[in-house]
Amino acid sequence: MSTTDASQIESRLEVRAGGLIAHVAISNPARLNSMNSGLMAQFIETIGALATNSDLRALVLTGAGEKAFIGGADIKEMAVLASPDQARTFIARVHDCCVALRDLPVPVIARINGACFGAGLEMAAACDLRVASTTALFGMQEVRLGIPSVIEAALLPTLVGWGRAREILLLGETFDAQRALDWRLVERLAGPDVLDASVETWLESLLACSPGAVRAQKALIRKWEDLPLTAAISAGIDSFAAAFETPEPREAMREFLEREAIRKALR
Questions:
Q1: Residues β-bridged to residue 27
Q2: Domain spanning 211-265 has what CATH number?
Q3: pTM of the model as a whole
Q4: Rounded alpha-carbon distances, angstroms, from residue 70 to 30, 83, 195, 223
Q5: How confident is the model at residue 2 (pLDDT cuts 50, 70, 90)?
Q6: 19 forms bridges with which residues in the sheet?
Q7: CA angle, 88 as apex, 155 and 40 as ends, to 5°?
Q8: What distance in Å separates the CA atoms of residue 157 and residue 149, rounded to the nearest whole number?
Q9: Is the pLDDT at 58 greater than 90, yes or no?
Q10: Is domain 8-207 annotated with CATH 3.90.226.10?
């Protein structure tokens, strides 16, 4: 499904023994995979459809090609916004893209393969795990374009701390992948030739976990972000109890104990 230009959302499902892995790529090669309104609408629709798939175990988000993850929101489109109402509508769409990732019931891995600027960095922050190519570049350059960084830029202090977030947002400078790792903006770095292998190690770990438990854990983490400590702990107790509404915990624990018994017998 294409937008009115050459940009599109590329999506495919990979069948694994433990379930389905979704691979979604932003493809807007003429604009460093920047997000225009058509792409955003298509992205929200794509992620919304995946959210209803009960066999889905994880989603890998990346940018098409080798130059960019997501180069930001399309500056050409922003440059012709004629009123505050139009600006509000545009930025709300970007926010909806981030919410789609945060509310997806399964973990989202950001495979950051190049330029990751502005809205692209906000979408990366909305993912659950982030691995970047050693050649990736990062930045929130909005203040150099006459606008503040908004929406999911609010997640940055939870990743890098307030001081680093201020440095990123107030200066609008570009920084490299090693600095992104040092600042804990990403969890891993990998050379371009082993980026997929690094993603695969996470996928293998996710598939080794109980699917219902992973979904419950992501939903709980999402609640923790918005709750004060006492309420967050209470939500965790509710989530623990709800897990036993299915046989999954008992089956997983029985299998664990059986493996432990075999391991001890072989000592």
A1: 8
A2: 1.10.12
A3: 0.95
A4: 12, 26, 16, 27
A5: very low
A6: 16
A7: 70
A8: 13
A9: yes
A10: yes
